[in-house]
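Can anyone check this?
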Amino acid sequence: MKFSSKMERCGLSPMRKFAPYAVKAEQAGKKIYHLNIGQPDIETPPAYFEAVKEFSQKVLAYAPSAGVPVLIEAIRNYYAGIGAQLTDKNILISTGGSEALQMVLSSILDDGDEIIIPEPFYPNYSTFVTLTGAKIRPLTTRPEEGYRFAFRDRIEALINEHTRAILFTNPGNPTGAILTQEEMQLMADIAKEHDLFLIGDEVYREFVYGGEPLMSLLQLEGYDENVVVIDSVSKRFSACGARIGCMITRNQELYNQAMKWCQGRLCASTIDQVASAALYTVGPEYFAAVREEYKSRRDALVAKLKEIPGVVYSEPKGAFYVMAALPVDDADTFQKWLLEEFDDNGETVMFAPGEPFYGTPNTGKNEIRMAYVLKREDLERAIELLKKGIEAYNNR
């Protein structure tokens, strides 16, 4: 049987590829501290579940392909609150932020096209780009520079006749880097000057820890044809299982092209859209409390990382991930060993190996991404296990 060459070029998710090993480890009685996947343990606001209970339609019907009006209005109001004015014809509701990315990439990329993405990047970007027939031109960043990437000379050196877009996460997954307003302006200027789309994956916008204002590319004026924003309720409201996100653009032709995708898949879940609209009724005190909790967790994780000799990282400024280089030969082999052969008092740790977060070949082989989505004491124990695991692995 023949399979799609595009799909065969895709790899398994580094966040999930070791799940079978984890299942066997747990069946053997091990407790695993999961730092591998960005699944928050913060409670989802009750407003979501109350809206589900109050849902009273006698027929669970298809929603409009663009999304239910109550959710679109809730998203408009949210953005108005941070100074970005939108209309109903700027927002397309998607099945999570992932589908929103698929919508825009499938609308703008053809075989042989290129898209610039700072690396390390969210590995599923590679899957979505590869399935369009395009390829990623990685823009390398470094921990000693705080994983910053908004440098005109470095970006323009990657632009050629095949370049169609620039994509980045802000705040960064997996780096935790945050763009300043000046850096966002520079990125938008470059995109406009070179007639490129500028795609901002902003699903972690609320998670900034230095008192920075909440910023979006949509707040910039004069870039309506270039800017596209990806958003989601998954992380902001700890509602990953709702699978509700959106693609936002003022470019009407892009909106029209993406609508073909929306109509082809009919609609996102009706009841989840209605319930997700209720999430936007939570007040600023919710976000303030969540930010403080994640900041505390970040500080705990970083403090423990400092105790491990040979680990290289940059303190994340936002989101809830840290990328770190370990003093091991291969993070994939190390992770498998941690699950199959290592434990300390019946416990071990799980992370996401770093190589799939890069587009440059043979990069990130000894790096890992960790999500600080566990309570503080569990994070401290997880990094203690990582330290002990490194020592035992290198002394085999």
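Reply from J.R.: I decoded it. The first strand starts at residue 31 and ends at 34.
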